[in-house]
Amino acid sequence: MREEMSSRERVLAALRREEPDRVPYIEATVDIRLYQAWTGRTAVGPNAGGILIGTGQTRPVEIETEISRLLHRDNINFRMNAPVFAEFPTGKDDRQFFGEGKVKTWDDLKLLQFPDPTDDRLYEPARVFLKGKSDFAACAGTRLGVGSAMYSMGMEHFWFCLHDDPDLVGEVVRRYAEWASVVLGRFSEMGFDFLWCADDVAFNTGPMLSPEHYREIILPHLRTAVRNISLPWVYHSDGNLLAIIEDWLSLGQSGMHPVEPAAMDIVYVKKTYGHRVCVIGNIDVNLLATGTESEVEAQVKQRIRELAPGGGYIASSGNSLPAYVKPENALALGRAIRRYGKYPIAV
Question: Residue 321 pairs with which residues in a beta bridge?
Answer without folding.
Answer: 30
